[in-house]
User: Fold this.
Amino acid sequence: MISTSMSKDIINFDVVRLTTELNKYHKHKSIPTSFFNGTWTIPHLLKIYDELESYHQNIADNLIEQYKVSVQSSSEGLYKSLVNEYKAFLSTQTTRDQRWYYPPVMNKYRHNINPIRALTFDVREMAYVGNASSSHHQWLSDLITDPNFYHRVIQDIIKDRERVDIILNFYHPAYITAGLNIPFELKHLQTLRTDLLEYAKLFTEFRNWTPDE
Assistant:
Protein backbone atom coordinates (compact mmCIF):
# COMPACT_ATOMS: atom_id res chain seq x y z
CA MET A 1 0.00 0.00 0.00
CA ILE A 2 1.37 3.42 -0.97
CA SER A 3 1.34 5.98 1.80
CA THR A 4 -0.16 9.42 1.35
CA SER A 5 3.25 11.07 1.68
CA MET A 6 4.71 8.79 -0.99
CA SER A 7 1.81 9.40 -3.40
CA LYS A 8 2.39 13.13 -3.14
CA ASP A 9 5.95 12.58 -4.35
CA ILE A 10 4.87 10.94 -7.61
CA ILE A 11 6.15 13.05 -10.50
CA ASN A 12 3.87 14.01 -13.36
CA PHE A 13 6.36 14.14 -16.19
CA ASP A 14 3.86 15.86 -18.49
CA VAL A 15 3.81 18.77 -16.06
CA VAL A 16 7.61 18.82 -15.93
CA ARG A 17 7.85 18.85 -19.73
CA LEU A 18 5.17 21.51 -20.05
CA THR A 19 6.76 23.83 -17.51
CA THR A 20 9.98 23.61 -19.53
CA GLU A 21 8.11 24.80 -22.61
CA LEU A 22 6.37 27.53 -20.62
CA ASN A 23 9.73 28.73 -19.30
CA LYS A 24 10.99 28.92 -22.89
CA TYR A 25 7.97 30.99 -23.84
CA HIS A 26 8.41 33.32 -20.88
CA LYS A 27 12.09 33.81 -21.68
CA HIS A 28 11.89 34.32 -25.44
CA LYS A 29 8.35 35.80 -25.67
CA SER A 30 7.56 33.53 -28.61
CA ILE A 31 5.45 30.37 -28.72
CA PRO A 32 7.70 27.27 -28.71
CA THR A 33 7.72 25.22 -31.91
CA SER A 34 6.43 22.27 -29.89
CA PHE A 35 2.98 23.93 -30.02
CA PHE A 36 3.09 24.03 -33.82
CA ASN A 37 4.55 20.62 -34.65
CA GLY A 38 2.01 18.58 -32.67
CA THR A 39 4.22 17.78 -29.67
CA TRP A 40 1.98 19.95 -27.51
CA THR A 41 -1.54 21.24 -28.09
CA ILE A 42 -3.58 23.82 -26.22
CA PRO A 43 -6.21 21.17 -25.26
CA HIS A 44 -3.39 19.08 -23.76
CA LEU A 45 -2.13 22.10 -21.86
CA LEU A 46 -5.62 22.81 -20.50
CA LYS A 47 -5.98 19.19 -19.42
CA ILE A 48 -3.09 19.53 -16.96
CA TYR A 49 -3.49 23.27 -16.34
CA ASP A 50 -4.75 22.78 -12.76
CA GLU A 51 -1.61 20.81 -11.87
CA LEU A 52 0.62 23.77 -12.70
CA GLU A 53 1.79 26.21 -10.07
CA SER A 54 0.11 29.61 -10.22
CA TYR A 55 3.28 31.14 -11.67
CA HIS A 56 3.17 28.78 -14.66
CA GLN A 57 -0.60 29.10 -14.96
CA ASN A 58 -0.15 32.83 -15.58
CA ILE A 59 2.45 32.10 -18.24
CA ALA A 60 0.10 29.50 -19.78
CA ASP A 61 -2.71 32.07 -19.91
CA ASN A 62 -0.50 34.45 -21.87
CA LEU A 63 0.68 31.70 -24.20
CA ILE A 64 -2.89 30.58 -24.94
CA GLU A 65 -3.97 34.13 -25.73
CA GLN A 66 -0.99 34.73 -28.02
CA TYR A 67 -1.60 31.37 -29.69
CA LYS A 68 -5.21 32.31 -30.48
CA VAL A 69 -4.18 35.64 -31.96
CA SER A 70 -1.38 34.03 -33.96
CA VAL A 71 -3.61 31.33 -35.47
CA GLN A 72 -6.46 33.74 -36.19
CA SER A 73 -4.15 36.18 -37.97
CA SER A 74 -2.69 33.41 -40.13
CA SER A 75 -5.89 31.43 -40.71
CA GLU A 76 -5.56 31.64 -44.48
CA GLY A 77 -2.08 30.14 -44.41
CA LEU A 78 -3.24 27.52 -41.92
CA TYR A 79 -6.04 26.46 -44.25
CA LYS A 80 -3.78 26.29 -47.29
CA SER A 81 -1.36 24.10 -45.36
CA LEU A 82 -4.22 21.84 -44.26
CA VAL A 83 -5.53 21.50 -47.81
CA ASN A 84 -2.07 20.55 -49.09
CA GLU A 85 -1.69 17.82 -46.49
CA TYR A 86 -5.27 16.67 -47.03
CA LYS A 87 -4.80 16.32 -50.79
CA ALA A 88 -1.43 14.62 -50.34
CA PHE A 89 -3.01 12.04 -48.05
CA LEU A 90 -5.95 11.37 -50.36
CA SER A 91 -3.65 10.80 -53.32
CA THR A 92 -1.31 8.39 -51.49
CA GLN A 93 -3.57 6.29 -49.26
CA THR A 94 -2.13 2.83 -48.75
CA THR A 95 -5.66 1.43 -48.61
CA ARG A 96 -6.06 2.55 -52.23
CA ASP A 97 -3.01 0.67 -53.41
CA GLN A 98 -3.55 -1.34 -56.60
CA ARG A 99 -3.03 -4.62 -54.76
CA TRP A 100 -6.42 -4.15 -53.10
CA TYR A 101 -8.23 -3.81 -56.44
CA TYR A 102 -10.03 -7.10 -56.94
CA PRO A 103 -12.11 -6.92 -60.17
CA PRO A 104 -14.88 -9.26 -58.87
CA VAL A 105 -15.42 -6.74 -56.06
CA MET A 106 -14.62 -3.42 -57.73
CA ASN A 107 -16.87 -4.08 -60.74
CA LYS A 108 -19.87 -3.94 -58.40
CA TYR A 109 -19.27 -0.41 -57.12
CA ARG A 110 -18.54 3.11 -58.31
CA HIS A 111 -15.17 3.46 -60.01
CA ASN A 112 -13.55 5.68 -57.36
CA ILE A 113 -14.54 3.76 -54.24
CA ASN A 114 -11.80 2.88 -51.78
CA PRO A 115 -11.11 -0.81 -52.58
CA ILE A 116 -10.89 -1.72 -48.89
CA ARG A 117 -14.29 -0.11 -48.35
CA ALA A 118 -15.65 -2.11 -51.28
CA LEU A 119 -14.30 -5.30 -49.71
CA THR A 120 -16.08 -4.53 -46.44
CA PHE A 121 -19.36 -4.10 -48.32
CA ASP A 122 -18.90 -7.50 -49.95
CA VAL A 123 -18.00 -9.14 -46.66
CA ARG A 124 -21.13 -7.77 -45.01
CA GLU A 125 -23.23 -8.92 -47.95
CA MET A 126 -21.69 -12.40 -47.77
CA ALA A 127 -22.40 -12.64 -44.05
CA TYR A 128 -25.98 -11.49 -44.55
CA VAL A 129 -26.86 -13.61 -47.59
CA GLY A 130 -24.83 -16.65 -46.56
CA ASN A 131 -24.84 -18.36 -49.96
CA ALA A 132 -22.41 -21.27 -49.54
CA SER A 133 -22.86 -22.28 -53.19
CA SER A 134 -21.71 -18.89 -54.48
CA SER A 135 -18.26 -19.12 -56.06
CA HIS A 136 -17.74 -15.43 -55.36
CA HIS A 137 -18.53 -15.89 -51.68
CA GLN A 138 -16.24 -18.91 -51.48
CA TRP A 139 -13.41 -16.88 -53.03
CA LEU A 140 -14.10 -13.95 -50.68
CA SER A 141 -14.22 -16.23 -47.64
CA ASP A 142 -10.86 -17.76 -48.57
CA LEU A 143 -9.42 -14.28 -49.07
CA ILE A 144 -10.43 -12.68 -45.78
CA THR A 145 -9.47 -15.72 -43.69
CA ASP A 146 -5.99 -15.89 -45.21
CA PRO A 147 -3.56 -14.83 -42.42
CA ASN A 148 -1.31 -13.08 -44.93
CA PHE A 149 -4.21 -11.03 -46.24
CA TYR A 150 -5.28 -10.10 -42.72
CA HIS A 151 -1.84 -8.88 -41.64
CA ARG A 152 -1.30 -6.90 -44.85
CA VAL A 153 -4.68 -5.22 -44.81
CA ILE A 154 -4.45 -4.32 -41.12
CA GLN A 155 -0.96 -2.93 -41.68
CA ASP A 156 -2.16 -0.66 -44.48
CA ILE A 157 -5.22 0.45 -42.52
CA ILE A 158 -2.99 1.38 -39.59
CA LYS A 159 -0.63 3.32 -41.87
CA ASP A 160 -3.50 5.43 -43.17
CA ARG A 161 -4.97 5.91 -39.72
CA GLU A 162 -1.65 7.08 -38.30
CA ARG A 163 -1.28 9.63 -41.12
CA VAL A 164 -4.81 10.90 -40.51
CA ASP A 165 -4.07 11.17 -36.79
CA ILE A 166 -1.00 13.31 -37.43
CA ILE A 167 -3.01 15.77 -39.51
CA LEU A 168 -5.96 15.85 -37.11
CA ASN A 169 -3.78 16.18 -34.01
CA PHE A 170 -2.06 19.20 -35.47
CA TYR A 171 -4.86 21.13 -37.17
CA HIS A 172 -7.96 20.30 -35.14
CA PRO A 173 -6.63 21.75 -31.84
CA ALA A 174 -5.46 24.86 -33.72
CA TYR A 175 -8.91 25.51 -35.18
CA ILE A 176 -10.69 24.76 -31.90
CA THR A 177 -8.38 26.93 -29.79
CA ALA A 178 -8.57 29.87 -32.20
CA GLY A 179 -12.36 29.63 -32.39
CA LEU A 180 -12.26 29.14 -36.16
CA ASN A 181 -14.89 27.19 -38.09
CA ILE A 182 -13.85 23.59 -38.71
CA PRO A 183 -13.26 23.22 -42.48
CA PHE A 184 -14.72 20.41 -44.56
CA GLU A 185 -11.31 18.79 -44.98
CA LEU A 186 -10.92 18.22 -41.24
CA LYS A 187 -14.46 16.87 -40.93
CA HIS A 188 -13.80 14.51 -43.83
CA LEU A 189 -10.60 13.28 -42.21
CA GLN A 190 -12.50 12.59 -39.00
CA THR A 191 -14.99 10.53 -40.99
CA LEU A 192 -12.18 8.68 -42.76
CA ARG A 193 -10.57 7.87 -39.42
CA THR A 194 -13.84 6.38 -38.16
CA ASP A 195 -14.14 4.38 -41.39
CA LEU A 196 -10.60 3.02 -41.03
CA LEU A 197 -11.31 1.86 -37.49
CA GLU A 198 -14.47 0.13 -38.75
CA TYR A 199 -12.54 -1.60 -41.52
CA ALA A 200 -10.00 -2.94 -39.03
CA LYS A 201 -12.74 -4.11 -36.69
CA LEU A 202 -14.60 -5.95 -39.48
CA PHE A 203 -11.56 -7.77 -40.86
CA THR A 204 -10.56 -8.75 -37.33
CA GLU A 205 -14.03 -10.13 -36.63
CA PHE A 206 -14.05 -12.13 -39.88
CA ARG A 207 -10.47 -13.40 -39.89
CA ASN A 208 -11.66 -16.80 -38.63
CA TRP A 209 -15.08 -16.70 -40.25
CA THR A 210 -16.73 -19.80 -41.74
CA PRO A 211 -19.87 -19.93 -43.91
CA ASP A 212 -21.73 -21.76 -41.13
CA GLU A 213 -21.57 -18.59 -39.03
Observations:
- Residues 76-205 form one domain.
